[in-house]
Amino acid sequence: MTKSAVILGMDRYILSALEEDIPTEDLSTNAVMKEAVPGEVDLVCKQDGVICGQGVFERVFTLLDSETKVTFFTEEGDAVKKGQKIAMVEGDIRVLLAGERTALNFMQRMSGIATYTRETVKLLEGTGVKLLDTRKTTPNMRLFEKYAVRVGGGRNHRYNLSDGILLKDNHIAAAGGVKEAVKAAKEYAPHVAKIEVEVENLDMCREAVEAGADVIMLDNMTTEDMKKAVEMIGGRALTECSGNVTKDTIKDIAKAGVDFVSMGALTHSAPILDLSLKNLKPAGGRK
After folding, report:
1. Is 146 marked active-site?
2. Whole-number Å distance between alpha carbons of 121 and 133
3. Which one from 136, 183, 186, 228 is the annotated catalytic residue?
4. Crossing angle of helices 178-188/202-211, nearest 10°?
5. Whether the Cβ atoms of residue 148 and residue 110 lie closer than 8 Å to each other
6. What are the tens digits of pLDDT across the range 167-216?
7. CA 17, CA 278: separation in Å to the nearest integer?
8. Chain-centre distance of CA 270, in angstroms?
9. 86 — phi, psi (to 5°)?
10. CA geometry: angle at 214 spanning 213 and 219, to 5°?
11. What is the DSSP letter of 271?
């Protein structure tokens, strides 16, 4: 998922978030601001991390008022420090106040994921193992969260159920076994689609290899069994480790020799990066 793809697809989600926060009016702002007054406010980082979601942040304000101007002092994916000024937002003060929380919610979440991802990627440096996300995303936030993983240096697994074939335990049970599931997938899928199979033990791994799976996901297996599985596969399929992967375990997992490690925590457990809009002043009122 590229930056341009996020920008092209994000408006409906941002508008939905704005409607959630402003169903009829911003009662607090309208009570104290009877008319348009031009102003400016700073976006400040309150902790160290990786900044992500600049285009989304800006779009919140321009959807409310196309005349709003956001000037960034960082590039997407930059490392930032506590106290650093990230941007300045200029426009109708009523717009700055009304859009503040929605804009921050998006950017804090995305920056938190990018930060967490970059920290995890660093743990894999020198191993050749690539870090993947999962579909364990916040509903209606997948576009933004998967983009943030890429900004942080990770890679995206399939985006949705239409994006690739992954035969998990329940698919295998429904088909009657690994061999049967792979056979059915090969008959149904277009020839360009890879078939990934989730396996939980060495016997299932052997079946997946013999059935011709393109990718084999080693799910919740011990490091020792993963090493045996990689040796068994012998390069006949790509290998992916998944299941309860944490920062504490990922280095040992990488030693098993897998090609990829998928980590749901990148999107479901990353804390936000604390950001704030500060120093609101009428335009020209700065000292």
Report:
1. no
2. 12
3. 136
4. 30
5. yes
6. 999 999 999 999 999 999 999 999 899 999 999 999 999 999 999 999 99
7. 22
8. 10
9. -90, -40
10. 75
11. P
